[in-house]
Amino acid sequence: xxxxxxxxxxxxxxxxxxxxxxxxxxxxxxxxxxxxxxxxxxxxxxxxxxxxxxxxxxxxxxxxxxxxxxxxxxxxxxxxxxxxxxxxxxxxxxxxxxxxxxxxxxxxxxxxxxxxxxxxxxxxxxxxxxxxxxxxxxxxxxxxxxxxxxxxxxxxxxxxxxxxxxxxxxxxxxxxxxxxxxxxxxxxxxxxxxxxxxxxxxxxxxxxxxxxxxxxxxxxxxxxxxxxxxxxxxxxxxxxxxxxxxxxxxxxxxxxxxxxxxxxxxxxxxxxxxxxxxxxxxxxxxxxxxxxxxxxxxxxxxxxxxxxxxxxxxxxxxxxxxxxxxxxxxxxxxxxxxxxxxxx
Length: 344
Description:
By secondary structure, the chain is an alpha/beta fold. It has two domains: 2-109, Enolase-like, domain 1, CATH 3.30.390.10; 115-343, Enolase-like C-terminal domain (TIM Barrel), CATH 3.20.20.120. It has 13 helices and 13 strands. It is globular, with a radius of gyration of 19 Å.
């Protein structure tokens, strides 16, 4: 197999601000795996918070390229070889995993979701995210997402509660919130009790990543269900969260790919936790990869492509909260618009 990669810069319509930082331009990477005349595509969207950036992604991909072997179907063996060559680097690993699944689906002439045996009829609707903003800016952002059936609002700064009250007064749909590790345990309980009358569906990651005891303490006192995000990356993290949170947010860029995410979905269920599938700021390529498992989730936050000024791919995710799985083979994506020639 031959692996190549190139920059895939994407830009959000608004500055995307969370408690951990703010950006509008994101340096993603497009991965191609070519074998026997077919090309599988994948995308890496690295997070500085997890120690990854564009340069780290490129270095990891170059390290792994000689270890792919000559059989794209041998996914177990490929995983073992990549682990022996280099651990971690989940965004880069996810891009390889996506490209392999895309190649296999194209070779067999089937969409990946059919290979995985899921039922598209059980796919939940997805929320769309509003980053942290001043009240005036939040009002402008809200006008662009009124057609969505549910919102996720980023919290972690002054004015959070006032913004939420403004949103609830103008928006009748479901609302989720995400603090991205911003609070202490006592602050989390105070804010969550304050916003509970606004009919908040759930809260993500109220506390720092490693404060698992704190998550348990908050959950016991919160009127709103508590989900972990930054605290859960791989299969081994789930047992430590059982009984401490109501659910987990799984993302390809944290798990390292579709295979690990599938294992984690089943493990989370066995441990009594609900499952949300989420995303970073990604094009429809990575979003379509995550969407292959969307029918297995309780909640979806597959919205990275809706945040973009210009999406370089057309794929499974659609408009206004609908994640419509494609009948196209593989991940069901193709370059869109002005990107068709350079990314095809």
